Amino acid sequence: MPNDLASRLEPIVAEAVKAAGFDLDSFEVQQAGRRQLVKVVVDGDDGVGLDEVAGVSRAVSAALDENEHVIASAYTLEVTSPGLDRPLTVQRHWRRAKFRLVKVTPAEGAAFIGRVGHAGEKSARVLVDGEIRDVSYASVTKAVIEIEFKQPPAEDLKLLETDASALNAATTEPKEEPK
């Protein structure tokens, strides 16, 4: 029942979250005694602050109340943002982790730690030991942000910025027509 309910509620919740200016990162409905526990995780390009979580919570609550015929029981709503331990699983996660240190466990080879640069459609550029690597999302078993207690080295950030600028220039330059 909760999975069926979740599939009916998810579009309603996703629309409310999107209208509030955020992305629905995950959604879950669980039975909690006589109530339903509706868990909503939201994210945004600039993160999500406490005031913004409260705003999204009000928007989702209003949407659920408008569609009470779908949920048809008492519910508890829990709205939160993803923690630092959330795995990087899709392109937007990598994009939002720009300049962050990440631990990457590839499907093949040893795990490594690097700093995220440009996140493209199918891969991210990662600075590892002074070298920039293309890391295909499909080749990653697990990737998580590493907590840092100091500012990243300026030379690393400059190298990643230069690399991103070069990538953007390569994709926006007009191609010559064959003569």
Automatic annotation (TrEMBL):
One cellular-component annotation, GO: cytosol
Residues in Ribosome maturation factor RimP N-terminal domain copies: 12-85
Transmembrane segments: none
A Pfam family that the UniProt record links to this protein: RimP_N
InterPro entries documented for this protein: Ribosome_maturation_RimP (IPR003728), RimP_N (IPR028989), RimP_N_sf (IPR035956)
Annotated compartments: Cytoplasm
Example GO BP: translation
Domain of life assignment: Bacteria
Family per record: Belongs to the RimP family.
HAMAP family, alphabetized: RimP
Function: Required for maturation of 30S ribosomal subunits.
Identification of the protein by name: Ribosome maturation factor RimP
Annotated organism of origin: Amycolatopsis japonica
Gene this chain is encoded by: rimP
